[in-house]
Amino acid sequence: MIIPLFTILTGSAIIGLYLCITEKKITQKLVGLNIFSAKIIAIIILIANQLKIIYYLDVAILYSILGFLGIIIIARYLEKDTL
Amino acid sequence: MNYIITIISYGFIIGGMLFILFGMFAVLRYKDLYIRLHISTKSDVVGVISIYLGLIIKNGFNIFTLKIVLIILLLIITNPIVATAIGRSNLLNKDS
Predict the structure, then answer these.
(1) Is A64 on the interface with B (CB under 8 A)?
(2) What pTM was estimated for this model as a whole?
(3) How does DSSP classify residue B7?
(4) CA distance to A7, B17, B65, B72, B96, per residue, from B60 (Å)
(5) For the segment B4-16, what is each residue's pLDDT rounded down to a tens digit?
(6) Where are the domains of chain A?
(7) Which residue, A21, B24, B39, B75, shows the most beta carbons closer than 10 Å to its own?
(8) What's the pLDDT tens digit per position in B39-95?
(9) A5, A19, A64: residue with CB nearest B13
């Protein structure tokens, strides 16, 4: 059960990174970055569940907040030309 | 009883896997930004939260489960804000 789950999550993270690299407009790149961030958090939580290490979940919470802030700041900068 | 809990958690995990698979197929299929934003936010939230619920049911009630609940609340709050910000910046940007 755990191997197809890791395969699908890793494949969709690679799709998000592919969109983030090869698209021309920058808002399309932000969509790819959002997909990549959510899938990487899910992979971190699955690794913490398999290895039974609780403090990996703190890494997942911190990465969630940092991904949110990065996308919000880039989108706000594109909208108003200032922060 | 233990057998039933395992079956329910695997059902949630398989449902989340199918949602993420079809969502990623649709993101590659359509090229417009608003359609892509619509598909990616819905399939991400439903699929990832379903996988987390499967892990919660499988593990029982402890500190691990409480931190996963915190991550679910953070995902529910922040993902619509991100979608709104990306769509609004595409609409109001002068270059695009």
Answers:
(1) yes
(2) 0.90
(3) H
(4) 26, 21, 7, 16, 49
(5) 999 999 999 999 9
(6) 2-80
(7) B24
(8) 999 998 999 999 999 999 998 888 999 999 999 999 999 999 999 999 999 888 766
(9) A5
Instruction: Single out the residue of B58, B20, B12, B4 nearest to residue A12, CA to CA.
Output: B20
Q: How far is A76 from chain B (nearest CA, A)?
A: 7
CA distances from B70 to A26, A60, B48, B56, B88 (A): 31, 11, 14, 12, 28
CA distance B14 to B8: 10
In order, the DSSP letters of B24-46 are HHHHHH---HHHHHHHHHHHHHH
- Burial of A54: CB neighbours in 10 Å, binned 0-12, 13-18, 19+: exposed
Q: Alpha-carbon distance B69 to A48, whole Å? A: 15
Domain count, chain B: 1
Q: How far is A45 from chain B (nearest CA, A)?
A: 8
Give the dihedral sign, CA B51/B53/B55/B58: negative
Both ends of chain B: CA-CA distance in Å?
57
Residue B12, domain extent: 2-92
Q: Which of A1, A12, A75 sits opposite B86 (nearest CB)?
A: A75
